[in-house]
Amino acid sequence: MYIFVQLLSHLVQKIPFSCYKLVGKLLSAFNKRYYYRDYRHTMAILQEIFGKNFHEKVVEWTDYIFLLRALKQLDFLLFPALNQKTVPKFVSFDPEEFRFDKKQGKIFIGYHLGNQNWFPSVFAINGLVLHTLREGRQIWLNKIANPGKIFRPGKNTREIIKLLRAGELLGLVGDVFTSSKHWVRTEFLGLKVRWPAGFARLARLARAEVYVFFSPRWSDGKIYISIRRLPLPDYSDKNFEEKLTKLYVKELENFVSKHPEQWLRWRYLKSLTLPKS
Question: pTM for the whole thing?
């Protein structure tokens, strides 16, 4: 299985970028039929939030969301044999944003824009090692795709904190809506929600700097990376986790209110929504 995956990945590296996008569109059309309930559910959530007057836009956004899902699936064929020439073909970034001091650990918190799996490779070709907190199988990753350690969510917390306190870098996504002991009540696009705050607790315990990491894939098919440091409350603040989580959610809210077609987690939003009472 490993040899087959590697061989297939080497072949995919050579596919012209225009062909890659075309295959993504075909796979997207197939996905719409296969994931029909997900498609309809995503459309219903968008309709509820943005209103009936946006029906045509909602259809357009939902179609694009499924295109991003398809391209995300194709991306996994690239990662086993990913090389330094392939990354710039698919990802655009400013090298100046990847110049960091080593005095303090740093957490880079992304969003489910379909492209978060590219985080470690962009750091790698900038000479940095990004450890990741993620689910995933090593067979789909090589030393360019993920040069650092992979930690499973909820596991090895002490080791992660030790790495961060030693000045290492950690990447994760903060909109993983799974069971968590740590939640914060906040608002998102007019909805009262409870948002998982495990990443904020990790930042407080490790005294780490925190950056948000955006990776939209625009209509040309390329991923555009931007990083911004969040202004943190004092680590001794008893409301540190709540304040940081709300900052993170506000960043996402500002982005998806302008680009709803980029976020792939709409269908999970109901699971976070609090009763109106």
Answer: 0.92
